Amino acid sequence: GGAAWAVAQAFGLEPVAQAVLVLQMIAPVAVTSYLVALKHGADADAVAGLAVVSTALSVISLPIALALLIG
């Protein structure tokens, strides 16, 4: 989230665009990434792990980010 905010500041994005960028960057890894990895013979187990961990972390990070962006 911090890197996204810094990029938004560097490019002078408007507040709504800044919020969208930050929220997109801290959103969990898409589960479809697992399906793509599985189809193309990549390390699907690692991708599945990333999806689980990023989803668990988003339970904490998304409300905090929203509070900071809105408030």
Q: How many individual helices?
A: 4
Termini separation: 16 Å
Helix content: over 70%
Q: List how many beta strands DSSP finds.
A: 0
Which sequence of SSEs, written as H and E, runs from N to C?
HHHH
Description:
The chain has 71 residues and is mostly helical. It contains four helices and no strands. Helix 1 packs antiparallel against helix 2 (15-26), helix 2 (15-26) packs antiparallel against helix 4 (44-70) and helix 3 runs antiparallel to helix 4. The protein is elongated and about 40 Å long. The mean pLDDT is 92.
How do the helices and strands line up, and which of them pair or pack?
Layout: H1 2-10, H2 15-26, H3 32-39, H4 44-70
Helix pairs in contact: 1-2, 2-4, 3-4
Task: Write a compact overview of the structure shown.
The protein has 4 helices and no strands. With 71 residues, the chain is mainly α. The two termini are 16 Å apart.
Name a few traits of the molecule.
single chain; 71 residues; mainly alpha; 79% helix; elongated
